[in-house]
Amino acid sequence: MHFIDTPLSYEALTAPDLTYTLIHPLLEKYCNLQRAHSNLSIVFCLLLNRVHFIRDDNISTAAVSHSRAILCEILAIRTLRDYGSSMMDLTVILTTSWPIYSGAPHDVLVHGRREFADFDDEERVGNAIEMAIMGTAKRFIKSSSCQRVIDGIYSGRYVYQAESSHSILSDTYKRTPIHMYDPHKAPLLDHYRLKVPAIRSVLEYSNFLILFVLFIIAMETNELQRINFWEGFFMIYALGFTLEKIAAMQEHGIKVYFNGTWNGFDMVFVGTYGVYAFLRMYGVYHDRPWARAMGVDSMAAIACLMFPRLAFVTLKNNLMVLSLRAMLLQFAALMMIAAFCFCGFLYGLWTLSRNSAGYSISQIGWWMLDLWFGLDASGFDNASQFDPIFGPVLMITYACLSNTLLLTVLVSILSNTFATINEDAAAEAMFRKAVSTIEGVKADSLFSYQPPINLIALCVMLPSSYILSPRWFHKVNVFMIRITSFPILLMISLYERQAKKNGTTNIYETLSVVTERVLETLPRKFKLLNFLEGLAGSDGDIDMVFEIEDELAMESALATDDGPSNMDAIKHHDRRLSPYSTATRPRQQTQAPPQPSSSSPPHPPPAPRTRLNSLMQRGAEAAHPFTSPLAQLFQPLIVDDGGIPEDAEVPPAQQPTTLSPSGPVAPPSGVSYGPAYRRRLSSMHHVRDHSHMSSGHHIRQNSEAPRMLFPTGGGDDPFSASPDQHTESIPPAGDIEEKGNVEWMRRLEKMEAAQARIEALLEKIAREVRK
Asked: What is d(CA 447, CA 440) in angstroms, rounded to the nearest whole number?
């Protein structure tokens, strides 16, 4: 409030001048307060102040308050970034519900106790993520630090227990602190996993799918005179679904709950279901035919909510679904305003008709709706019967306003809404995911029971909470959850152990890896995927090129010593996390082969993994698996043999040593470390001086030294090791230049051959695409 006294946009606040004169001083102040006093509530306080400023609806101060809210969001993003290296600190900062009066002056507390009867010194209003949702801080939620925490909580890697004072079944006897989850250390039937957002989303989708199927069956088999089995089963299951939604709204509040994508449909369903259930039971047990028929009609109206709700849940990350929610809200608001305004025309025409025509108000309203939607012109035909002068004037004015002006305004508003969401669809999707994550972490034990079992839990456990002690209530509650959800908990435990073992991140990847492993164990003649592999085209071959390279490099790194350079190579080759990369697939554990002696011949490169042997053996006419023409496609396209001969020796002082418990050990005599770190220097030095020379020279290759297909992370590579690992000086460029030009010509020949292979591969891909 001190620094912002004029309206400023986000772009203006993040401009270089204000960044260095305003943002950085405030950021340094809050970061010092955060570090010096270990005060992890700074981010929460900034987001809480954003909620306060964003709620300013005074026309004269709203623009300035909006600028202050933007400044709070910017400071919250950059303050949170200060703890970006510690995931546990980030999780604590964003998920802890801080007491809002902690640190307040004494006179403020005294005034609060004196003026407000329900004043509580330890009052909590939520955590930082909830404040970001209430303040629509989409930039904060989109930040990388916040997304890491949200993804970790959503997938269940980081576990925390939500706090709520509005729970129906409150079980707070044994609260666990925020921690990382390890499925191998957790119990087999861990009932806390039922509150993981990712698992809850699957359970909620399954519950609604069951409700949808029961609704269709009940509609097709209902009997007007009585409630049959399927309709009764639907009513009980829908009652459990309704109880779950009411508990969710009570725990998080209406503000957070209605930020969900489809929660509005759920609340309309709850209201419509209540009307249907009341009319059906009243009409059947009191023999009221009109109530029975009205109940069936109300049940049919529920179909208008069930089908869109199922589509919204299935396509929850679709841009159109994200936009449709905001567009529906604006459309409903505009229609309500228009209907209220046009009631003046309805009342005026009805008053005129009482004098002569005598039309009912419902008939006039129907004619006006026809004009509104452009369906019928009966209102124009009968306009003169209302009044010869005012009747046509009112009807034409209404038609112009409703069918022309209102339609134009509506299209403009909805187009602007869609364009706004489309500009940053990723932020909108992340915001919705944050809402679903916070909704998924439930504090109420009622959510651990699936519909309709939650009805039994409510009838049994709610009275028990007033009779049993907190310790015994916790024991009985855990026992009930594990008994009623035994198959679900067992499936969750097996799935999470498989995901941990295979390094996968979602259900699709886990099922893909498990299915692939099962298929690999089958004989080739029993596999049914040959036809599907043919339909896939050359996409799989392209992925195999890089996959074989990664696996061979990994095996080469494991075959050598276990120094730091090998670990760097492993981390380097694990960086791709696509569904086709080796990071999402189980690797076969291989042991490092014994070091060859100086007299033994060099070993050939390790073969690719078993799944690809059938493809690689199609061209295995030669002894070496990479000598066939088809197998050459799976070699690296450019192999840099360097401008230094392979037989160049390295001085003994520069040869690396390996540390062992007994002391330093010299490297094996068959391993050469010299060319590994001089190749790149040679290519960098000669690319300027010898680029004009023509190819055509033939250089004798060293037949005794094994050819390096992939870099294995040599110990003296200055470009693969960190700067603090270099103990020797890099050789000067003059020493490399003495090697002559013949080596450079050899490099040019290999680059031209590699370019030819690239062009051949691209032509093959183009032919496959055209097919």
From this structure: 9
How many beta carbons lie within 10 A of that of residue 527, not counting itself? 13
Q: What is the largest distance, in Å, between two alpha-carbon atoms of the chain? A: 119
For residue 608, the one-letter residue type is P
Tokens describing residue 502: 């295979």
**Could you read off the pLDDT of 38-89 as tens digits, one per residue?**
889 999 999 999 999 999 988 889 999 999 999 999 999 999 998 888 888 8
**Confidence at residue 514, expressed as pLDDT on a 0 to 100 scale:** 79
Amino acid at 693: M
Chain-centroid distance of CA 334 in Å reads: 33
- Please tell me the distance from the alpha carbon of residue 187 to that of residue 481, in angstroms, as a whole number: 14
- pLDDT, tens digit, for every residue of 190-237? 888 888 888 888 898 999 999 999 999 999 998 888 899 999 999 999
CA neighbor of 740 nearest in space, from 692, 682, 688: 682
How many CB atoms are closer than 10 A to CB 453?
Answer: 16
| SS3 at position 158 | strand
Half-sphere exposure of 253 (CA within 13 A, CB side): 13
Give the Cα separation of 770 and 222 in Å (integer).
Answer: 55
DSSP notation for 692-719: T----------SSSPP-SS----TT-TT
219/223 Cα distance (integer angstroms): 9
The band of 265, judged by pLDDT with boundaries at 50, 70 and 90, is confident
Residue 731, preceding peptide bond in cis (omega within 30° of 0): no
Q: What are the phi and psi torsion angles at 5 (to 5°)? A: -125, 15
Q: Which two tokens stand for residue 35?
A: 């570090």
Q: 607, 613 in Cβ contact below 8 A?
A: yes
Strand partners, 170: 444
Q: Is residue 504 exposed (0-12), middle (13-18) or buried (19+ Cβ within 10 Å)?
A: buried
Chain segment 311-331, per-residue pLDDT in tens: 878 877 777 777 887 788 888
Can you tell me whether residue 660 is helix, strand or coil?
Answer: strand
The DSSP call for residue 225 is S
